[in-house]
Design brief:
Blueprint lengths: L1 E7 L3 E5 L8 E5 L2 H8 L7 E6 L6 H9 L3 E5 L1 H10 L7 H15 L9 H31 L6 H32 L1 H8 L6 H11 L8 H8 L3 E6 L3 E7 L5 H17 L1 H12 L4 H22 L13
Parallel strand pairs: 1-4, 4-5
Antiparallel strand pairs: 1-2, 2-3, 6-7
Length: 321
């Protein structure tokens, strides 16, 4: 298998057909025509394409490569960046980056990317819009608050801001209802299983389904917690460094915040989560650390009920330890 490195930008993408310095590179337009022109230069049985996850810029390329049955890996840019540091790379151009990505593929042999279903793509777009609407609502409310302390608040400005707040609140409510409706329609069984867990509501359940592709992207709960950025970090070196750091904070910060809030709710109603929190607090752990641990437990419970296809039973203890 020959690994092909691809450096993607908004208008074009550069392809390195090998990692060798003398290897051929070529630039294609990041359009349907350009991608199909590139696909004609490679073989589904001989080539494995590797590229960084660059948001919407790489979406078309990944989709058309997957449709053509060509193996493609979509890697976290941080992995490529750290790999470049390990290779002591000091020069950065699109061609060099493409060759570096090809070399990364040869050395690391990344797993193939699983193309998201249409329903997951739609849900993801709606969640992105919802997140931005909420940010705009917070900003507008803050603006109102900053103007209210002035000696004179212009009535016209106040009316405009209040109308904007009402509009944003309606849009947010409508978008949340659409997300819930779509998730219930496409993933009803998973939604029912997830919401059987005390502490997980329909909004969080839908967010988990989007993040995991219907729980198909991960083999176990540990992989999922690491992806969500809830895994604790640890640094140890010799006798001078022995530090238990913060969580790794990778992945979707919005979903991580939702899990953190859900963890507080679960302390009242979820027997296992409450026991976990109390045990850690009695062992002297800070409150925030204990809450993060509870969020991790919620993720493990969510992964368990969906993969096993059984609703959550509060207080149930598995015989497997």
């Amino acid at each position: 298998m020959t690994y092909i490195g691809i450096d993607v930008s908004k208008a074009t993408f550069v392809v390195a057909y090998s990692s060798a310095k003398t290897g051929r590179t070529k630039t294609f337009k990041n359009t349907v025509k350009g991608v199909r022109e590139f696909i004609r230069t490679i073989s589904a049985t001989e080539h494995h394409c590797v590229l960084e996850a660059t948001g919407n810029y790489s979406a078309l390329l990944v989709y058309l490569l997957s449709e053509a049955r060509i193996t493609v890996s979509l890697e976290n840019p941080l992995k490529i960046k750290n790999f470049a540091r390990a290779m002591l790379s000091v020069t950065k151009t699109d061609e060099i980056d493409a060759r570096l990505i090809a070399l990364y593929g040869e050395r690391m042999q990344p797993v193939p990317y699983k193309l998201r279903s249409d329903s997951i793509l739609i849900l993801k777009q709606k969640r992105t819009v919802l997140r931005q609407l909420k940010k705009q609502l917070v900003a507008t409310r803050n603006l109102k608050g900053s103007l209210e302390v002035l000696p004179s608040f212009d009535p016209e400005c106040k009316k405009t801001i209040e109308k904007t707040i009402v509009f944003l609140e309606k849009q947010i409510k409508a978008m949340e209802e659409k997300i819930t409706s779509l998730a219930q329609g496409e993933y009803k069984k998973q939604m029912d299983l997830l919401t059987s867990i005390k502490g997980i509501g329909v909004t969080l359940a839908a967010a988990l389904i989007v993040a995991t592709g219907g729980f198909t992207y991960f083999d176990n709960a540990k992989q999922l917690t690491r992806y969500l950025g809830l895994s604790p970090t640890y640094q140890q070196s010799g006798t001078s460094v022995n530090v238990k750091g913060h969580i790794n904070r990778n992945g979707d910060s919005n979903l991580r915040s939702q899990l953190y809030v859900a963890a507080f709710s679960s302390l009242r109603y979820n027997t296992e989560c409450k026991a976990c929190f109390e045990r850690l607090r009695s062992n002297g752990k800070p409150g925030k650390v204990a809450v993060v641990a509870v969020a991790n437990k919620l993720v493990r419970q969510a992964f368990a009920v969906v993969t096993q296809g059984k609703p959550y039973v509060d207080g149930f203890k598995s015989e497997r330890q």
